[in-house]
Amino acid sequence: MQNQVATSDERISDKKMPELTVTSEIYEEYDYRTKITPSTEGNVISEFPFLLPKDGDAATFDEDDDLVLERPRKEVIKIEHSSKTKIALVGLQVWRGAFLLGDWLIHLGLKGELTNKCVLELGAGTGLTSFVAALYAKKVVCTDIDLGGILELIKLNAKYNRSLIKSNFKVMPLDFTDTNWKPQVLDEIKHSDIIIAADVIYDDDVTAAFISTIQKILNTQPPKTLYIVLEKRYVFTIEHLDSVAPCYETFLALLDKVKTENQHSTWTIQELPLDFPKYFTYDRVKDLVLWKISSTKC
Question: Is-contact 269 290, C-beta < 8 A?
Fold first, then answer.
């Protein structure tokens, strides 16, 4: 998602600027698209390959007492999505952070850290990372704003990937700008153990709303753990005479502000190293980051 710096003439103009149309950079790196006919005109269907190691098997040895290592099997996640969108509907596309979060979920799953857990995804977009979580978790609740047909798209993609979904799987609306949750949503939040999110930071107002949302979620019946993947997106500003990542800086500033404002829980915040295996096919660029935020009851 690319941002543009407005000129002084544009800032003082009374005319409303047209909203930018953006296209995910992943399609400049690999050809994921298929010739499968999508359900909706203007959409495309892509297949995202990944390696899936077997988990839970006891070690086996051959007749020479050498360890037998079974090769991971190749799998694909089939996703129907938009090829380009306005910024407000970027969730209808697939972004690079979803692959990094998918890698992390497989890594956790292989270690048994998702077993019997309830996972809640925020801003799930096309649902890709929720489908990965559903390989290992007891329950997955996939949420996003009810806008632009995104919830119906997630349900459609769940049908495409039903062979991968091993958990109880739900799709529900959740809007970052409204934390007056309906009883059904609140109940799912109360019982969630792990919250995940990828590429949800692209606008300062959305960032502030997201921070308010995770603050309330993490303080609702802790302990809870949030894993969030972000990609720093740089723009050149005259103010700084340099390229900066303003949305990411806003995220860090707001996170630092709220981490000590929680009366009912204590937060532990850490940026995790990206030294775990890569299972999806994508460029793991240096601007991708993974944060872990855990809340424990005071």
Answer: no
What CA–CA distances, in Å, run from 254 to 46, 210, 249, 259, 268? 35, 10, 9, 9, 15
Contact between 262 and 219 (Cβ < 8 Å) = yes
| Partner residues linked to 268 by β-bridges | 294
* Residue at token pair 């872990």: 292
Closest CA to 127 of 84, 85, 91: 91
Q: Could you tell me which of 141, 266, 265, 268 has the C-alpha nearest to residue 196? A: 141
Question: Which residues fall within 8 angstroms of residue 151, CB to CB, at 6 or more apart?
Answer: 144, 171, 172, 173
Residue 69's pLDDT is 53
Give the pair of three-digit tokens for residue 206: 């959305």
Percent of the chain whose predicted confidence (pLDDT) is above 70: 85
pLDDT digits 0-9 by tens, 184-234 = 999 999 999 999 999 998 888 999 999 999 999 999 999 999 999 999 986
Higher pLDDT, 65 or 230: 230
* pLDDT, tens digit, 9 for 90 and up, residues 71-106: 789 999 999 999 899 988 999 999 999 999 999 999
CA dihedral 104, 107, 111, 114 (to 10 degrees): 40
Place of tokens 């809007």: 175
CA distance 289 to 286: 8
